[in-house]
């Protein structure tokens, strides 16, 4: 008799290894076997000149909007190089997408003035105060989507969108292809559009054609942290089995629990599974 809601489930985590610990731990607490196949890794910029220039003129911005923990950490790490301090950052009006980003900012001593009800760029555009004529700094990933900057400009703001860190291939997709070929994976989780894209691209680099990579992923449940990630997955041809109602790690876990309620786990292969990843 299974006592935990995810007992016996083998669940792939494609999130960057630097950020996956809380999800991996939560899955284990609920009885799952998390398998880390990171699609992406967070890397520092090769050239900090644009970020440093933006930080140097921090006083000119009415708002600084952080869309991730990574963006907050990257900007804070450059404050000293630009002759600024955390205190200077905290004098700006700060917005944060999501509880993790909000918690990160509070930990360094900055109280966000605004956190949207839902954790997507569109919610910030709809819910933030009047920004017409305001100057806004967006420290982002180098491959971040343009929806937030575009929407704020349409509302009359001047937006400086500056890369604060890089998102790079992590190489986990090769091991994922091997795991999926064994037919013993219950779900693959995606926590951002970049994890979806880089997973498919990585499987292609590992020797599959794109159609084969998509077909292999569609043999198992694809579970996404939110609608933006799910839309990217669908655009690539993946069949999304579940989407978190709350766009957080806990929301993703809840989606997995709901998906598998009353459904038996995939039968594990008889071989020692520790060597699979």
Kindly report how far apart the N and C termini lie.
28 Å
Mean of all residue-level pLDDT scores = 92
Q: Report on the biggest sheet.
A: 5 strands, parallel
Shape: elongated
Q: Give the strand line-up of the largest sheet.
A: 2-1-8-9-10
Q: Low-confidence parts lasting 5 or more residues at pLDDT below 50?
A: 269-277
Radius of gyration over C-alpha positions, nearest whole angstrom: 20 Å
Portion in beta strands: 15-25%
Number of helices: 12
Q: Output the helix-strand order.
A: EHEEHEHHEHHEHEHEHHEHEH
The count of β-strands is 10
The helix content, as a percent range, equals 25-40%
Please identify the structural class as seen in this structure: alpha/beta
Task: List the SSEs and their pairings.
Blueprint lengths: L9 E4 L7 H9 L3 E4 L3 E4 L5 H8 L6 E4 L2 H9 L8 H5 L2 E4 L2 H10 L12 H7 L7 E7 L5 H8 L3 E12 L3 H9 L5 E4 L2 H13 L4 H8 L3 E4 L2 H9 L4 E4 L5 H12 L17
Parallel strand pairs: 1-2, 1-8, 4-5, 4-6, 6-7, 8-9, 9-10
Antiparallel strand pairs: 3-7
Helix pairs in contact: 3-5, 6-7, 8-9, 9-10, 9-11
Structure, briefly:
The chain has helices spanning 21-29, 49-56, 69-77, 86-90, 99-108, 121-127, 147-154, 173-181, 193-205, 210-217, 227-235, 249-260; strands at 10-13, 33-36, 40-43, 63-66, 93-96, 135-141, 158-169, 187-190, 221-224, 240-243.
């Amino acid at each position: 008799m299974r006592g935990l809601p995810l007992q016996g489930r083998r669940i792939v985590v494609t999130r960057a290894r630097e950020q996956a610990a809380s999800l991996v731990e939560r899955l284990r607490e609920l009885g799952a076997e998390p398998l880390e196949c990171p699609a992406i890794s967070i890397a520092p910029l090769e050239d900090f000149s644009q970020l440093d220039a933006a930080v140097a003129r921090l006083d000119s911005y009415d708002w600084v909007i952080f869309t991730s923990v990574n963006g907050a950490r990257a900007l804070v790490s450059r404050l000293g190089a630009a002759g600024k301090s955390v205190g200077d950052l905290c004098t700006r009006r700060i917005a944060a997408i999501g509880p993790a980003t909000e918690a990160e900012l509070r930990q360094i001593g900055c109280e966000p003035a605004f956190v949207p009800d839902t954790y997507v760029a569109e919610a910030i555009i709809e819910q933030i105060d009047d920004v017409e004529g305001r100057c806004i700094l967006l420290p982002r990933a180098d491959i971040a989507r343009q929806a937030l900057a575009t929407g704020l400009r349409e509302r009359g703001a001047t937006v400086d969108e500056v890369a604060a860190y890089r998102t790079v291939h992590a190489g986990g997709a090769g091991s994922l292809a091997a795991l999926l070929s064994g037919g013993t994976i219950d779900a693959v989780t995606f926590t951002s559009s970049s994890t979806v894209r880089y997973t498919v691209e990585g499987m292609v680099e590992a020797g599959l054609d794109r159609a084969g990579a998509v077909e292999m992923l569609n043999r198992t449940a694809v579970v996404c942290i939110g609608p933006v990630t799910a839309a990217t997955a669908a655009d690539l041809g993946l069949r999304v089995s579940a989407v978190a109602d709350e766009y957080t790690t806990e929301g993703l876990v809840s989606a997995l629990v709901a998906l598998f309620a009353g459904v038996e786990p995939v039968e594990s292969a008889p071989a020692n599974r520790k060597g699979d990843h």
